Amino acid sequence: MTKSQLMEAMASKTGMSKKDVANLMTELADFAYSEVKKTGEFVLPGFGKMVKVKRAARMGRNPATGEQIQIAAKTVVKFRLAKAAKDAVL
User: How far is Cα 28 from Cα 37, in angstroms, rounded to an integer?
Assistant: First the structure.
């Protein structure tokens, strides 16, 4: 489903205009990004949780040469699907 198809489906379900739905989705995404940056997590009840996780430094392997390399520590963002969402889909 493309973004425009999603906006159209949400607009028809809610009775809102496509423009209002698009603005709502944009604001929700922006809010989620700022909350994860500030507090480390953002929860969308019934859907899941976006969390910021620190990944430790580790040894890796260069696939081209097979040589071992050191991979630096970094911070990544992960999304954990809620149990209710898993149960609804499966």
Answer: 14
63 plus 35 within the same structural domain: no
The secondary structure of residue 26, as a DSSP letter, is H
**pLDDT digits over 76-88, tens only?**
999 999 999 999 9
| 18 burial level (CB within 10 Å; 0-12, 13-18, 19+) | middle
Cβ–Cβ < 8 Å for 48, 85: yes
Say if residue 26 is in the same domain as residue 50: no
Residues of the domain holding 31: 1-39
State the residue for tokens 């260069």: 62
What is the pLDDT, as a whole number, of residue 53? Answer: 96
